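cron nightly-structures :: item 1 of 1
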Amino acid sequence: MKAKALDNLKVAQSLIDKKEACSNTASIHCSYYAVLQYMKYILAHTDNPITYEEQTQQTKCQSSHEYVIFEIKERFSDFKEARDFVHDVRDLKKDRVDADYSEREFSLDESLECRDQANRLISKLKRYFGNI
C-alpha cells in the first residue's frame, strides 16, 4: 500500500507536468488517494495494527475514508496535531470529490497546492509514526 501511495504521488506529478486543465483536475484524485493509501499503510504497520482485511471489514457500515481518517486521528497523542491533520485531509478530500464529481476544472496552481498538501500530510505521518 505504501508503494501504491508513492506511485500515486508520481502520477499526480506527471499529470501536473502536462499543464493541461484536464490533467490538473485528474491529479487531484491521485494526490488525495496517495494520502489515503499511506494512512491505510500506517494503520497496518504501527502499534495495535489493523490489517488491510480488517480495515475493509470495518468499512461495510460506514465510509471507508472516514473510518481510516478516524483511526489515524485516534493514534495521535496530541489533540491539536490530530485536529489539524484531520482538517487538512478533509480539505484535500473535498477537492478530490469536486475533481471527481463536479464540472469544476482545477488550475495548475490548485493542483500544485493539492500535491503539496498531500506531500505535507505524508510527511506528517512519517514524522509522527516513523518512516516505516
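cron nightly-structures :: done
Helices lie at 2-17, 21-45, 52-58, 64-75, 79-101, 108-129.
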